[in-house]
Specification:
This protein is an alpha+beta fold. Helix content is 36%, strand content 31%. The chain contains 9 helices and 19 strands. The strands form 4 sheets. The protein has a 7-stranded mixed β-sheet, covered by helices on one side. The longest helix is centred in the N-terminal third of the chain and has 44 residues. The radius of gyration is 25 Å and the shape is globular.
């Protein structure tokens, strides 16, 4: 049964194409392959959108999979195919009418018996610069999306798959051992059952992972196997990936690096963005401004190279540029000049 929603606008077609690419990346089942083939046959715009999305994904495994989806039939074969279609179209119409009635009955009965078990959910959640969102997903999991971030959600009766395409997100995962919850980011997947964790991109593929509750399994998605046994059984973790536990933080790029333990206060400071705050503990001014820049279109310029390394500490409200400038001047002897509405120059106060 094809339970995929049909989209018509250009934006919706592009969104649907991105969802298909994320599914191809994690592997299609039989029903999904049929559904994808049907969707591609519906419109040339669908095929072009899928190719465009694949070119952005930049993954050879996806491109290889797509190479088999666009055969080039000969003119003779295409002509025969059109002739065949004319001969059988009425028979197919009658068959589909009977199937539609039968499928409608099955769908109604399934939905009434256990709607959540069989429902397929596809959605995109996005925030602009300076925007944050809290979303409860279809399974009851909670998604907290930070500024300038984008995720796609693909839930089925057997899996819960999220792709973090950019930015930062915190996940509070509803417990469901039958449907592991996996988040793909860059080169890795992070899989959980009932837990909470935070992911933030630090460059195009590397991300910072903070586990706030329970445990997660970190796998290189190019080497990972299809089993989730190590989360529920006794299969050696080394065959699957690396387990990380509550209170741990690491940078992940293929492998887990710079792994460390965190106190609850450190975790709270790291996730202060969920309460609209940013916490700095003596980072260089240059790094502080990069972090501030995630939440505002305003750009800062430092006139004095020595000023770039000046240490800054404190609690700052997200998006409060005036408050930031006031604190820099009163506490760190850093003055400012507004060059334009979106450009500010910083320099050291003299005397």
């Amino acid at each position: 049964m094809n339970n995929i929603r049909q989209f018509s606008s250009k934006e919706d077609i592009q969104e649907h194409a991105c969802l298909w690419i994320s599914r191809i990346d994690r592997g299609l089942n039989g029903d999904e392959k049929v559904a994808l083939d049907t969707w591609l046959r519906e419109s040339n715009a669908h095929r072009q959108a899928l190719l465009d999305a694949a070119s952005l994904w930049d993954d050879m495994s996806v491109l290889n999979e797509l190479s088999g989806l666009f055969p080039q039939p000969s003119a003779r074969h295409a002509s025969k195919k059109r002739g065949l279609a004319k001969n059988v179209v009425w028979g197919m119409a009658a068959t589909f009418l009977v199937m539609a009635v039968a499928v409608g009955i099955v769908v109604q009965r399934t939905w009434l018996d256990n709607a959540s078990q069989f429902a397929t959910v596809n959605q995109k959640v996005q925030t602009g610069v300076g925007e944050q969102k809290n979303v409860t997903l279809a399974d009851g999991s909670k998604l907290h999306l930070n500024t300038n971030s984008l995720v796609t959600v693909d839930f089925s009766s057997t899996s819960r798959n999220i792709v973090l395409l950019k930015g930062e997100a915190h996940f509070e995962v509803a417990h469901d051992t039958a449907r592991p919850f996996s988040v793909t980011a860059g080169n890795n997947t992070v899989t959980a059952v009932g837990t909470a964790f935070n992911l933030q991109y630090v460059d195009d593929n590397a991300f910072e992972l903070v586990v706030t509750e329970g445990k997660v399994l970190v796998k290189d998605r190019f080497r990972a196997t299809s089993s989730n046994e190590s989360l529920f059984g006794k299969r050696p973790v080394t065959e699957e990936g690396l387990l990380m536990f509550a209170g741990e933080k690491a940078t992940v790029l293929g492998k887990v690096e710079a792994r460390e333990s965190m106190s609850q206060n450190e975790i709270d400071d790291d996730l202060a963005w969920q309460q609209g705050m940013i916490v700095f503990k003596g980072e260089p001014l240059e790094s502080v401004l990069i972090e501030i820049g995630r939440y505002t279109p305003v750009r800062f310029h430092i006139s004095d190279d020595n000023l770039r390394k000046r240490r800054v500490a404190g609690y700052f409200k997200v998006g409060d540029i005036d408050g930031l400038l006031s604190a820099l001047e009163s506490s760190f002897s850093i003055k400012h000049e507004k060059v334009t509405d979106t450009s500010i120059e910083l320099s050291a106060k003299k005397g």
